[in-house]
Fold each of these.
Amino acid sequence: MKKLALHWKIIIGMVLGIIFGFIMNTVDGGKGFVIDWIAPFGKIFINLLKLIAVPLILASLIKGISDLKDISKIKTMGLRTIIIYVGTTLVAIIIGLTIVNFVGPGKGMPQETIEKIKLKYENDAGVVDKLAKASAQQDAGPLQALVDIFPSNIFTSLGEAKMLQVIFFALFVGICLLLIPEKKAKPLVDFFDSLNEVVMKMVDLIMLFAPYAVFALMANVIIAFDDTTILVKLLKYAGCVVSGLALMIGFYLFLIKVYTKKSPQWFLNKISPAQLLAFSTSSSAATLPVTMERVEEHLGVDKEVSGFVLPVGATVNMDGTSLYQGIAAVFIMQVIWPEGLTFTNQLVIIATALLASIGSAAVPSAGMVMLVIVLESIGFPAELLPIGLALIFAVDRPLDMCRTVVNVTGDATVSMMVAKSLNKLHEPKPKEWDDHYEAVK
Ligand code: ASP
C-alpha cells in the first residue's frame, strides 16, 4: 500500500484533535481530561523539537560555513539575507495597512460590544502579562538588542537557547575554521558534520510522532474557546488579518515561481509539514528543526545557506507578525483612538512594526507584546493600552497560529531565493528515518 504523505497524516491528526476538542467542550469534566491527559503529549513534542533546535543550529551552521571555503561568500549571503528579509517584511506591513484602512474593521463597533470585551479581558492575566513584558522590553537602552547578540558565556546562550547568540558563536567558529590549516580544522568539522547528521535523524524520528502530537495540541487549543460570541464580533478584524496573511503566502509563491523557477505547488507540498507544525505550535522557534529538515532535504537548499538563513529568519524575519501588528494597531485606533489615525502615525507604524517583528521572540503570542511597543511609539494613550489589548485578545491565539505559518513560509522562501542567488539550490535528496534500519535491526 502506498504510504500516506506526512502532511496528510498531520492534517488528519489536526482535524481529529479539533473534533475531539469540541466534543470535550460539551462533556462534563472534558476540559480537565484534555488538560491532564492529552495536552502533555503536545508539550512533550514541543520539548523534543526545542531540545534539538540549538544543537542543530550549531552543527549545521559551523559545518555549512566551513564548507563555503570562502569568507567573502559569507558576507554576500548575510547581506542578501538581510535585504530580502527587510524587503518582504515591508511588503507584509504595507499589505496589512492597506487592508485595514480599506476595510475599516474597527469603525462603528457598537459601544456595548466594546464594554463587553473590556469587562471580560481588560484585567485578564494574559493581557496584564503582555503589558508587563512590553514594559520590561522598553526599559532596555536603544542598542541593547545589538549588545544581546554577543554572548559572554556560550554555555549560558546554549542553555537559554538565545538564538542570535548561538548563531554568532557558530559563525565565529565557522570562520575561524576556515582561517586555520585544513588539517587542524578537519576533526572539528567532522564532529559537527556527524552531529548534524544525528540531529537531522532525530527530526525524522520526532516527526513520526507529529500526527499524534498535533491532535493533542489542537484539542488543547479548542478547549480554550468557550465564549464564541466575542469571536463572532471580531470576525471582520480577524478576516482582515487572515486575508492579508493569505496574500503574503501568494506573494511568496510568486517569488518562488519567478525567482527560483520552481513550481509553487511543489514548494507548498514539500514545506507543508513545517507549515502545519507552525500552525499547531504557534512557534517558529519550535518549528525550526522541521523547517530546516524540509528546506535542506526536500527543497534542495544547501546546508551552508539553510543553516544561516533559517535560524536568523526564525528570530528576525516575521512577516506574518508584522502584518498582524499593522492591522491590529490600526484596528485598535479605529475603535478607541480614532484621532490618532494620521498618515504620519501610519508611517511610524511601518517603521516600528518592522523593528518589532525583528525584536519579537519566535514563541506563541510574542507579536502581541511587541504590538504594545508599536502602539506606544505613536503616542497611544497609556491608560487605553489594556483596553486596546483586550479588544484583540480573544482572537489572538488563532491569529497567532496563522501568522506563524506565514513567518515560517517566509523564512523558507527567502532561503530558497538566497540559495538560488548563490548557486546553492540543488536537486533535493530526502532521507527517511529508516534508511539504515535494516542494517542495524
Ligand atoms: N508566534 C509567532 C512565531 O513564533 C510570533 C508572534 O507573532 O507572536 O513566529
Amino acid sequence: MIITKSTPSVLFFDSGMGGLSVVASVKERLPNLHCHYLFDHAGFPYGEKQEDFLIERVGELLEQAVKLLNIKLIVVACNTASTIVLPHLRHEIKVPIVGVVPAIKPAAVLSKRKIIGLLATPGTIHRQYTQDLIDKFASDCKVLRIGSTKLVELAENYLATGFVDDEEVLKTVKEWVELDKKLQPDVVVLGCTHFPLLKQSLKKALGEITLLDSGDAIGRRVANLIDDFKLESVLETYDVSSYAFYTGSIEAYEKIIRENSFKRYGFTCLQEFKKFVKD
Ligand code: DGL
C-alpha cells in the first residue's frame, strides 16, 4: 500500500499525539473514514506558545497540507490551537474545518453542584475564547481552572511507552482533591485532546468526579459535515495507507511510537512532513 495524494481524506492536526484521542472518537462513529494525521512535533508543546506564533505556524502547515493532499475536511484536534487559530484558518483555507474546544456547555448542564473544573493547557485556560465560552454557557457556574503542560507530556509518554505516572497525575489535580467535598467540581472538562488518554489515571486521582471531553461531539460534527457537504468519498474504502506526518525530528523514539501509537490508530506510515513536501 502506498499513499495516493489524490485519495479523498480527512486531516487531523495536533501539536503531538493527543489528537489521536479525537481520531478514535470520530472513527467510533465513522469506522471507514480515510484520514491522515499531521502533528507539529517541532512546535510542541503548544500550551506554552504565543498566540501569534500559533496562528502563523498552524496556518502555514495546514495550507501546505491542503495543497499537497486531497483533503476534504480538517479537524484541528487541539484545543490550544482551535481556541485561537480558527478564524484565520477559515479565512485562508476553503475546506470545512472542525475545531475542538473545551466542552464547557455540556459541563454546565451536567453539573449539579454548579462547580466545574477546567483541565487544559496554560494557553487554553487563559484564552479569551475560553472566557467567552464560560460567560456564554456557564455563567451560573463557578469554573476552577488548572493549566498543565506536565499532563500533556505524561500523555505523550503514555502513548509511547504504555506507562502512566499516577503520582504525577495526582499532583497536577491535587488542589481539587484536597478541597472540601462541597467545594469540589463535580464535572471536570478535559480541555486538551491529550487528557482523555489519561482518563484511567485521572479517574483514580479524582474519584467520583465526571470527566467530560469533546470527542463524541466532534464525531457527530464530522458526520454531519460529511452529509451537508456531500463528502461521502472520504468514507469509501481505499487501498492506500493512512499517514502520520510530523515536523522536526522524532529520531529517538520513532520506532516506539510507530509501533505503539500510530499503528494502533490506523496510521501505518510515519513520515517527516518536510520530506513529504519536497518529494
Ligand atoms: N493537544 C493539545 C490541546 O488539545 C495541546 C498540547 C500542547 O500543549 O501542545 O490543547
